[in-house]
Amino acid sequence: MSSADSSKTPTRYHHGDLPSTLLAAVGDVLAQGGPDTLSLREVARRAGVSHGAPAHHFGDARGLLTAYVREAFLDLAATLQATRVEGGELARLKALGMAYVEFALAHPARYQLMFRRQRIDHDDCALQQAAEQAFLPLAQCVATLTKTPHSRAADNPYLLLAWSSVHGFAMLALEGIPAVLKHSDNQWRAQLGQMLDTLLASWPSSES
Asked: Does 158 lie in the same domain as 82?
């Protein structure tokens, strides 16, 4: 084959971890058009692979999005598990709340998809395990702080209150509500910090 012929040969990309490559391509699609515009063909095009590759690994678009959300919860879990702060459980709970909202604001499309019902299989066992792992640091901290059993949010009003507070703040900020998300990074942090201080001031605490 001549050099001229070689220059016309399409480049073939070999992906060492094709599922991860496809999930990364999902993020690119979501950033531009949202979950309703996602298709297996577009994900394959972004990943530079055959059109049949996403279906081979994930079955359909719902399976692909479910896997993407599962990875998002695992990333949230890693973020919260890595949160370190000097002081007792009150300081740790506040730090976890700040880290939670920071994760949401850093990955807006991804975070909103994590709590979407459409096109996501929330009965998927792997997804449920990832979600439980993500909320474990918060649940453990609340249980220690309030001397209540470590349980699911539905069974512990303090855990439900803590999660609802940071999740609600994050969603309001992502929707661009001016009263919540001010113009600078420091302003929303100050707002959230004041909210958490007010919330925790009324809690029964093992530190009091």
From this structure: yes
Q: What is the pLDDT of residues 5-61, one digit of tens each?
A: 333 332 333 455 788 889 999 988 888 877 777 888 888 888 888 888 888 888 888
**CA quadruple 25, 28, 29, 35: dihedral positive or negative?**
positive
Q: Is 66 helix (H, G, I), strand (E, B) or coil?
A: helix
What is the Cα gyration radius of the chain? 21
Does residue 109 sit in the same domain as residue 167?
yes
The answer for residues whose C-beta is within 8 angstroms of residue 101's C-beta and 6 or more apart is: 166, 169, 170, 173, 188, 192
What is the domain extent for residue 170? 69-201
**Residue 177 and residue 106 in one domain:** yes
Q: Tell me the helix, strand and coil percentages in the chain, rounded to 5.
A: 70, 0, 30
* Whole-number Å distance between alpha carbons of 145 and 142: 5
Amino acid identity of residue 171, one-letter, is M
